[in-house]
TrEMBL record:
Protein name per its UniProtKB record: Chaperone protein HtpG
InterPro entries hit by this protein: HATPase_C_sf, HATPase_dom, Heat_shock_protein_90_CS, HSP90_C, Hsp90_fam, Hsp90_N, Ribosomal_Su5_D2-typ_SF
Gene behind the chain: htpG
HAMAP family found in the cross-reference section: HSP90
Region (A): 1-363
Location within or outside the cell: Cytoplasm
Origin organism lineage: Bacteria, Bacillati, Actinomycetota, Actinomycetes, Streptosporangiales
Alphabetical list of Gene3D superfamilies matching this protein: 3.30.230.80, 3.40.50.11260, Heat shock protein 90, C-terminal domain, Histidine kinase-like ATPase, C-terminal domain
Subunit record text: Homodimer.
Record keywords, A-Z: ATP-binding, Chaperone, Cytoplasm, Nucleotide-binding, Stress response
Disordered: annotated segments: 218-247, 654-686
Function: Molecular chaperone. Has ATPase activity.
Region (C): 582-686
Length: 686
């Protein structure tokens, strides 16, 4: 920091410098948005002043009208945006302009791809509004004075966006902020009243405050005081002051200046809604769906809510913002932090405007307000209905929604008991019936095509979808043609437990827990075969159990498998809450049971050759390969590889003794094993 008279020079926070650089490259194809961003900040600043006045009556002075002013000066090559909002103190300027305090900055920067289009959308989402000025300006001068401070407490911030900015104290009689953009060479097309007006009407028409421009702004013929002052280098502040103070120049309001949600639906076009959505979300893409409702009755409120088409970068950040802004009688009050929208609907963006709350309502008051309870419950119902309609009328769009937000919506099954059934209908899964990994099966679809005699909804919970779809647990179900839902997300455990094991009167049943349960779909012959196998294998089971003591809770014969030799299931028949935890740990259930397939040649051979000196190797390999197909982690991978290699060496049989071949005893054994393996292959082939 260098000090020169009253001027101090500061260095931008590293992230700001990086974002400024990226922005100039990525946003250029969309350069007009700088105006939208600066007008949006001005509008926020006025909203904040209006709000602060409720608690600080001393700020309520002047009686002038709130407005945002846009002006340009062809000769000086400047565009000026001023507002009579809350302004900033020196500390606030340092904190707000020059630093990015938002959580997730690092994640955001990582998410940038270098692709102009997608980066532009991301940058927009991140809301780096003010810095977009540097897309068109080579120098930006911001002059501001906080409401409630003295005229001598004005601050001027100047920067060329290249790493440093300066601050100096200035006299500024009126509160508010003025931003003068000194345009880069080649940006003269923006120095045109008609062009500016068109941009404002395109991007900022929905701003509920008047945006005014000098009346004679068509070709820059009229010179305002601001223009004249701005033309002099270093006279930016004088320009701004004259500007915000109001001059004798005639002004016209160029936007509609009424809160969009207060206007009747019949007057609004799709484009109006989309523009407004972009204003509040910073999302360049149009919303997937929206609802606009005016409710009258015991409580009176309006809601305008949007479902975005893609997830914001911070959807999974713990403290991510909720997207609904509370207004009271059109005055912005606060951003929702969960009072208006539950966490599982945190992707919803929009406005709720209540006529019943006091203007000075605080967050604490919201928590115990009946009106808020009512609004919240109605908002949730309406959003769920909107999603239901989308699913029914536009399955393609709903699939897109599910891809982006399905995992968030699933949280609602555990969090919102009252709406559990509605949410359950919105769930989509991948199943053994799906041709891709896309989640395209609803619980209704599943129940509708259940086999005759089937009385349960089967599911398989695995650490990933890939592990689920390749799991041996599905073999018998596939053979019998019974559909199984494949659940591969951490939140899915809450889904199955949250559904209280039931949907539409059908119980949910894991295919990897307890003894195999095919409901009414197992015939007597199968049951008999299973009993017979258990008897035939009793001795082998005892031996395996002894070898795997401490690893396998139990070893059983199963009818669950057709092609795999073994699998692991959870001993408990019912999902418990701890399962998700374990799935994220080693991936093994608390009481892992090794199930072996009596029809498999390998298992048959073990039963015939229980005296095999390598029985322990076989047992460990069977157990651990079953752990792997579960998508779980082997406790002691080195020992597994050791057992496996011992068997491979024995099978290889022809390894030259004396080099790396087995010792004599094992060599003899290797031969007999290899012979057996041959027999096994034939048996398998037969
Ligand atoms: N005209 C203004 N008057 C008062 N404060 C302002 C003004 N413009 C910007 N600020 C302050 O600077 C901060 C940073 O502005 P910036 O546009 O970069 O991000 P933001 O407005 O916070 O985010 P978003 O664009 O997502 O709304 C604002 O939050 C606000 O505190």
């Amino acid at each position: 920091m260098t000090v020169q008279a009253d001027e101090e020079t500061f260095t931008f926070q590293a992230e700001v410098a990086q974002i400024l650089d990226l922005m100039a490259h990525s946003l250029y194809s969309n350069k007009e948005i700088f105006l939208r961003e600066l007008i949006s900040n001005a509008s926020d600043a006025i909203d904040r002043l209006r709000f602060e006045r409720f608690s600080r009556p001393e700020l309520a002075d002047e009686g002038e009208r709130f407005q945002i002013r846009v002006d340009h000066d062809k000769d000086a090559g400047t565009i000026t945006i001023s507002d009579n909002g809350i302004g900033m103190s020196r500390d606030e300027v340092i904190e707000n302009i020059g630093t990015i305090a938002k959580s997730g900055t690092a994640e955001f920067l990582k998410a940038l791809t270098g692709d102009q289009r997608s980066d532009a959308a991301l940058i927009g989402q991140f809301g780096v509004g003010f810095y977009s000025a540097f897309v068109v300006a080579e120098r930006v001068v911001l002059t501001t004075r906080r409401a409630g401070l003295d005229a001598g407490d004005g601050v001027r911030w100047t920067s060329d966006g290249k790493g440093e900015y300066t601050l100096e104290s200035v006299e500024r009689p009126e509160r508010g902020t003025t931003i003068v953009l000194h345009l880069r060479e080649g940006e003269d097309d923006l120095l045109n009243g008609y062009r500016l007006r068109t941009i404002i009407q395109r991007y900022s028409d929905h701003i509920s405050l008047p945006i005014v421009m000098p009346s004679e702004d068509g070709g820059g013929a009229a010179k305002t005081d601001a223009d004249a002052a701005g033309a002099e280098g270093g006279a930016d502040d004088a320009g701004g002051a004259a500007d915000a103070g109001g001059t004798a120049v005639a002004e016209t309001t160029v936007n509609r200046a009424s809160a969009l949600w207060t206007r009747p639906k019949s007057e609004l076009s799709e484009t109006d809604y989309h523009d407004y959505y972009r204003h509040i979300s910073n999302d360049f893409a149009p919303p997937l769906a929206y609802l606009h409702a005016k409710v009258e009755g015991r409580y009176e409120y309006t809601m305008l809510l949007f479902v975005p088409s893609s997830a914001p970068y911070d959807l999974w950040i713990q403290q991510s913002r909720h997207g609904v802004k509370l207004h009271v009688q059109r005055v912005f009050i606060l951003e929702d932090t969960g009072q208006l929208m539950p966490r599982y609907l945190r992707f919803v963006r929009g406005v709720i405007d209540s006529a019943d709350l006091p203007l000075n309502v605080s967050r604490e008051m919201l928590q115990s307000s009946r009106a808020v309870d009512h609004i919240r419950s109605s908002a949730v119902k309406k959003v769920l209905r909107l999603l239901k309609d989308l699913a029914a009328n536009d399955p393609g769009k709903y699939a897109a929604f599910w891809k982006e937000f399905g995992a968030v919506l699933k949280e609602g099954i555990a969090d919102d008991y009252d709406h559990r059934e509605d949410i359950a209908e919105l769930l989509r899964f991948t199943s053994t019936h799906s041709s891709t990994q896309d989640a395209d099966v609803s619980l209704h679809d599943y129940v509708d095509r259940m086999k005759e005699g089937q009385d349960k909804i089967y599911y398989l919970l695995a650490p990933t979808l890939a592990a689920a779809s390749a799991s041996p647990h599905l073999e018998a179900f596939r053979k019998k043609g019974i559909e199984v839902l494949l659940l591969g997300e951490a939140v899915d455990n809450w889904v199955v437990t949250g559904l209280v094991q039931e949907f539409g009167g059908k119980r949910l049943q894991s295919v990897a827990q307890g003894v195999p349960d095919f409901g009414g779909l197992e015939d007597d012959a199968e049951k008999e075969a299973a009993e017979k196998a258990t008897a035939e294998y009793a001795a082998l089971l005892g031996k395996l159990k002894a070898i795997l003591a401490g690893q396998a809770y139990d070893v059983r014969v199963t009818s669950r498998l057709t092609t795999s030799p073994a699998c692991i299931v959870a001993n408990e028949a019912v999902t418990d809450f701890g399962l998700a935890q374990r799935m994220r740990g080693s991936g093994l259930p608390n009481q892992p049971v090794l199930e072996i397939n009596p029809e498999h040649p390998l298992v048959e051979r073990l039963n015939r050759r229980q005296d095999d000196p390598r029985l322990a190797d076989w047992a460990h390999v069977l157990f651990n390969q079953a752990v792997l197909t579960l998508g779980a982690r082997i406790d002691d991978p080195a020992s597994f590889v050791g057992h496996l290699n011992d068997l491979l060496v024995a099978l290889a049989g022809d390894a030259p003794s004396g080099e790396d071949g087995p010792a004599d005893a094992s060599a003899a054994d290797a031969e007999s094993t290899s012979g057996d393996a041959e027999g096994d292959r034939q048996a398998e082939g037969a």
